[in-house]
Specification:
Radius of gyration: 25 Å
CATH class of the largest domain: Alpha Beta
Subunit structure: Homodimer.
CATH architecture of the largest domain: 3-Layer(aba) Sandwich
Number of strands: 18
Shape: globular
Catalytic activity: isochorismate + 2-oxoglutarate + H(+) = 5-enolpyruvoyl-6-hydroxy-2-succinyl-cyclohex-3-ene-1-carboxylate + CO2
Structural class: alpha/beta
Cofactor: thiamine diphosphate; Mg(2+); Mn(2+)
Helix content: 25-40%
Strand order of the largest sheet: 2-1-3-4-6-5
Distance between the termini: 80 Å
Number of domains: 3
Keywords: Magnesium, Manganese, Menaquinone biosynthesis, Metal-binding, Thiamine pyrophosphate, Transferase
Organism: Vagococcus hydrophili
Number of helices: 22
């Protein structure tokens, strides 16, 4: 490679460095050689190598999500770049600042049949916030400064609100080996200063809303950590309950309070039965909640619905929000604590807490939590998390079981997931990304057998980097969630090949192939014996938990019917 191009790329690298990028995830290829060598030979970057681009991009997503920092992905030309697409879609919806760098043939080799060449400019369409192509370099001070400024700005675009993925395409001519001895060009350096929006004047409707005794806070997943102690203090001051998603990390914050409602999903199924339980005001912080029933209720809600969001996005598929408060969430909470007056004691919060405790009693007395079951396994993992640990929750049934059973726990832990688009793509790689950001603590993953199979190659990077992730694979030989949906009523001969899709995986052999510790669980006694041995020891291991899909479906349906019947009696009385 010419010294001109090397200097141009070194200026680009400096732009990433000065904008705060540390982590770079590479996938092998010829055309990406210049960027790969320059990143690898710069000690200011931590470089990871993953041979599969789809796995690499989800690893980067998990790393960025956990560290709350931009992460760069670099790949070669052709279909390699297309494999980033699922993670880019998730990053956009989850507002994760991924920096996608694709490498390409120069313009004279495009549209003329050159190998491994396709149209890569604007490849990802509207799924990235910004897309650009770098020129083939010229060595002039202005072009070197341009190269530096563009990568600096690329990161700034990714981190600006709303955060999200950005893309740059680098065309390279052969030869592709840069001269690493070339000095970094002299550049005019840049700095970034980030600010937040603070609530200074409360709208009249919001002030009136805070005077209502029948209010509810909804806390969804957020890109920044919410100050839960102050949110709880605000809710206590108002006497309002908080309905919180598991991934919002309120119930794993170590904070305990009567305002935290653990089982809002099960309770919201019955709100239409009693006028006393209809809220007048709802204030949501963060994303929409996972709970289908909570979101269905919002679609018919006739009171005031406020969303606090400084991303510029109005994420409200209920179409019932009548006020968007463009504020940093913690700034809003802080200002609200100063603005609102403590309401007189009332029966509103007491009603909710009594019903929540009733649901908890029912759950803990049924075979769903007393016998060997997927839900029991999930509950045991959550209740035995080490302090300051991290747990990634896969989509499909694991996140739903978590929302069902998670109650406020005394230890401080963090839960992660990919709920932007809610797919099963790259779960394993995302969890390894989480682990890479915090290797010193205990890290775990709860995942189903199909999701595990779908992202199996993520194990290669986890093993290579010695990432201490405990992987709990709930193996019911198929897609358990479909059994809970209307498709579950189809005849077995139709349901199994189309929706159940059993794979009959030999997970023990897979674990051996990747040199992972392996444990198989088939009974409650085996589970009780193993659990305390592995929860405090960070290590790469696979724990396969064998269950029966039909039996698990029957247990979940039975508990739903039991709660429905008992709560109906309580609410109507």
């Amino acid at each position: 490679m010419s010294d001109t191009m090397t200097k141009f790329l070194k200026a680009s690298i400096e732009g990433f460095k000065d904008s705060g990028v540390v982590d770079v995830v590479l996938s092998p290829g010829s055309r990406s050689t210049p960027l790969a060598l320059l990143f690898e030979n710069d000690e200011d970057f931590k470089v990871y190598m993953d041979v599969d681009e789809r796995s690499a991009s989800f690893f980067a997503l998990g790393l960025s999500k956990t560290k709350k920092k931009p992460v760069v992905c670099v790949c070669t030309s052709g279909t390699a770049a297309a494999n980033y697409f699922p993670a880019i879609c998730e990053a956009k919806e989850s507002q994760i600042p991924l920096i996608i760098l694709t490498t390409d043939r120069p313009q004279e080799l495009r549209h003329v049949g050159a190998p491994q060449t396709m149209e890569q400019v604007h490849l990802y369409g509207d799924k990235v916030k910004f897309s650009m192509e770098f020129p083939v370099a010229e060595e002039t001070p202005r072009m070197l400064q341009y190269s530096y400024a563009q990568t600096f700005q690329l990161v700034s675009r990714a981190e600006s609100i709303p955060m999200g993925p950005v893309h740059a395409n680098f065309p390279f001519r052969e030869p592709l080996i840069p001269n690493l001895e070339v000095e970094t060009p002299v550049l005019k350096r840049k700095q970034r200063v980030k600010g937040i929006k603070v609530v200074q004047e409360f709208p009249k409707t919001l002030k009136e809303g805070f005077n209502e005794e029948k209010g509810i806070f909804l806390l969804g997943e957020t890109t920044e950590l919410v100050d839960v102690e102050k949110l709880v203090a605000l809710a206590e001051k108002l006497g309002w309950p908080i309905f919180s998603d598991s991934l919002a990390n309120l119930k794993t914050s170590g904070v305990k309070s009567s305002v935290i409602i653990n089982h809002h999903d099960l309770l919201m199924k019955h709100l239409e039965l009693k006028e006393d339980l209809q809220p007048k005001v709802i204030i949501r912080l963060g994303r929409a909640l996972l709970s289908k029933d909570t979101n269905l209720f919002l679609q018919n809600f006739e009171g005031h619905y406020y969303i606090v969001d400084d991303t510029g996005l109005i994420q409200d598929y209920s179409h019932q929000c009548d006020l968007v408060i463009e504020s940093n969430k913690n700034a809003f909470i802080e200002a609200s604590l100063c603005q609102v007056e403590e309401l007189a004691p009332n029966n509103w919060l007491k009603q909710w807490k009594e019903l929540d405790e009733k649901v908890s009693q029912i759950l803990h007395q049924t075979n769903l939590l007393t016998d060997y079951s997927e839900t029991r396994i999930t509950a045991d993992i959550l209740n035995n998390l080490p302090n300051k640990s991290q747990l990634f929750i896969s989509n499909s049934m694991p996140i739903r079981d978590t929302d069902t059973v998670l109650e406020a726990i005394p230890q401080t832990s963090r839960l992660f997931g990919t709920r932007g688009i809610n797919g099963i793509d790259g779960i394993l790689s995302s969890a390894f990304g989480m682990t890479a950001a915090s290797k010193e603590c205990w890290n775990g993953l709860i995942i189903g057998d199909l999701s595990f199979f779908h992202s199996l190659n993520g194990l290669a990077l986890g093993k290579k980097e010695s990432l201490p992730l405990t992987i709990f694979v709930i193996n019911n030989d198929g897609g358990g969630i479909f059994s809970m949906l209307p498709q579950g009523q189809l005849p077995k001969e139709t349901f199994e090949p189309l929706f159940g899709t059993p794979q009959s995986l030999n997970i023990e052999a897979l674990a051996q192939g990747f040199s992972c510790d392996y444990h198989k669980i088939q009974s409650l006694s085996e589970w009780k014996c193993l659990l305390p041995k592995i929860m405090g020891e960070p290590k790469l291991r696979i724990v396969e938990i064998l269950t029966n899909r039909e039996e698990e479906t029957a247990k979940r349906k039975e508990i739903n019917q039991l709660i429905s019947s008992k709560l109906t009696v309580d609410i109507l009385c």
